[in-house]
Write a structure and sequence with these properties.
With 104 residues, the protein is an all-alpha fold. It has one domain (2-83). The protein is 55% helix and 0% strand. It is built from 3 helices and no strands. It is elongated and about 80 Å long. Residues 90-99 have low confidence and may be disordered.
């Protein structure tokens, strides 16, 4: 009976030790994550609009879509529309004509 108590105590000690190590590593990882996030936020706040990259918006289309420009503008946040009031450049592709169905 004494050996069983020793084995259970050793297993419990190992479990407590590994759980404590995991907790310390998790807290350290969270600290690193929040420190890096704060750095990236400061860097993003320091950029001007001219330094930001251009964005391409790809939207699947089929045929001629009514109110195409309004649908594209819905993808942009309201702040983007106020910063750059120029009309949204839209690349239009010609509709692909399907070949007539062949009867087999």
């Amino acid at each position: 009976m004494h050996i069983l108590a020793v084995i259970l105590a050793v297993v419990a000690a190992i479990g407590i030790t590994t759980s404590t190590i995991f907790l310390v590593l998790t807290i350290a990882g969270a600290c690193v994550f929040f420190r890096e996030a704060a750095k990236q936020k400061r860097f993003a706040a320091s950029l001007t609009d001219d330094q930001l990259p251009f964005v391409s918006l790809l939207k699947p289309m089929h045929g001629i879509e009514p109110q195409l420009e309004e649908n594209f503008e819905r993808f942009l946040p309201a702040t983007t529309r106020t910063i750059r009031p120029s009309p949204l450049p839209i690349a239009c592709a010609s509709a692909i004509r399907r070949s007539p169905r062949r009867s087999s």
